[in-house]
């Protein structure tokens, strides 16, 4: 069997790249319930490329960290196939989470698909090596596969638990580390045998060319990471002075820009919202619109946005008598707060005057007649 040593600087670089890719992919999927289906498809595709590309880049940076006694090359076909497998399975996992109800079994299925993407990419990429022969021990398949699935499920459950900033950061750590753990677990149970030098069956990629490809991929991931990080920080601002903005919030996809009511809420229908583990209430009449956010919702008021533990369906059921109307599968509007209605060719939009972060709300084509009736048009 061939002996090899590791360049630990490249190992560290591979883990950092995996973390950046995990954060980029998970950050891109935040808040998709409030965008159009076309934008949702585009952002899921971008997130899949980030996650799958990160898995692939981590693997091949770690392979470049190995110093063999012989020159090694990588066949082009399985190398390209490995990155496509990672991207496609990461995309399928995200589609399962963003198109359909997020039930427990669905999260397990999504995490399983994501984990299988890691381990299948690894062995497909490893099969590309030329100059030596990987010798796999059966226990390695079981260990790497089991870890990949378990950590994939854990990453999905953490990321989609409530979609808070802390959940996304925790899932980044879980997923980013899982890629590295699966890789090095599989490599621990893999030996390399010396082979007789022979021409590759197809186009081969040398270490220098592979390093260049990996460098460009890592550069793209780093750029996407920086842009996602800037967007992430702007959506989750730091604590504000207590006298000006109340306690900081850790709710998902919504800044802490609404204060708890200073006086007891008016009688009638009220909307619960949470901050720092405390549930407050505000009169439903003060809410302009409600947007779905996974199993929960974001309510828009004149003071800002607040996180509501109700689902969009429960909010519709409870608030229909208070003048709220479902204009889109992701939106309820308080018709008393609508300042204008713009009829489009196939759909429309509701306009709001001075509600922060809420310029307009999309209206589905099938909901236009009902909304017009509610607005007296």
TrEMBL record:
Coiled coil: none annotated. Keywords: Membrane, Transmembrane, Transmembrane helix. GO terms for cellular component: membrane. Residues 243-260 have a biased composition (Low complexity). The chain crosses the membrane at residues 12-32, 44-66, 72-96, 108-126, 138-156, 168-189, 209-233. The keyword Transferase does not apply. Residues 271-377 form the HTH LytTR-type domain. It comes from the Bacteria. It comes from Rhodovulum euryhalinum. The keyword RNA-binding does not apply. It holds the Pfam family LytTR. This is NO-binding membrane sensor protein with MHYT domain. Residues 6-193 form the MHYT domain.
């Amino acid at each position: 069997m061939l002996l090899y040593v590791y360049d630990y600087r490249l190992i560290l670089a591979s883990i950092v790249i995996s973390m950046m890719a995990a954060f980029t992919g998970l950050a891109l999927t935040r808040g998709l319930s409030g965008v159009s289906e076309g934008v949702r498809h585009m952002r899921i595709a971008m997130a899949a490329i980030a996650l799958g590309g990160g898995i692939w880049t981590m693997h091949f940076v770690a392979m470049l960290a190995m110093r063999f006694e012989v020159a090694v090359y990588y066949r082009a076909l399985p190398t390209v196939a490995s990155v496509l497998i990672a991207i496609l399975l990461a995309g399928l996992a995200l589609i399962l989470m963003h198109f359909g109800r997020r039930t427990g079994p669905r999260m397990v299925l999504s995490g399983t698909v994501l984990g299988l993407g890691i381990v299948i990419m690894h062995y497909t990429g490893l099969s590309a090596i030329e100059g030596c022969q990987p010798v796999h021990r059966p226990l390695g398949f079981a260990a790497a596969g089991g870890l990949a699935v378990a950590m994939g499920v854990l990453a999905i459950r953490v990321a989609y638990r409530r979609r808070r900033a802390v959940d996304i950061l925790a899932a980044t750590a879980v997923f980013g580390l899982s890629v590295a753990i699966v890789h090095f677990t599989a490599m621990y149970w893999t030996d390399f045998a010396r082979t007789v030098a022979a021409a590759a069956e197809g186009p081969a990629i040398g270490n220098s060319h592979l390093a260049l490809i990996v460098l460009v991929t890592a550069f793209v991931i780093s750029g996407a990471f920086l842009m996602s990080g800037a967007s992430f920080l702007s959506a989750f601002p730091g604590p504000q002075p207590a006298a000006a903005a109340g306690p900081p919030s850790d709710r998902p996809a919504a800044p802490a820009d609404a204060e708890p009511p200073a006086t007891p809420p008016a009688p009638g229908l009220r909307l619960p919202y949470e901050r720092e583990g405390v549930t407050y209430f505000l009169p439903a009449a003060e809410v302009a619109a409600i947007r779905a956010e996974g199993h929960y919702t974001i309510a828009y008021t004149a003071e800002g946005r607040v996180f509501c533990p109700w689902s969009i369906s429960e909010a519709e059921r409870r608030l229909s008598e208070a003048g709220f109307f479902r204009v889109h599968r992701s939106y309820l509007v308080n018709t008393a707060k609508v300042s204008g209605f713009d009829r489009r060719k196939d759909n429309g939009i509701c306009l709001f005057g001075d509600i922060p972060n809420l310029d307009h709300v999309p209206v589905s084509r099938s909901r236009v007649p009902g909304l017009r009736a509610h607005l007296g048009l």
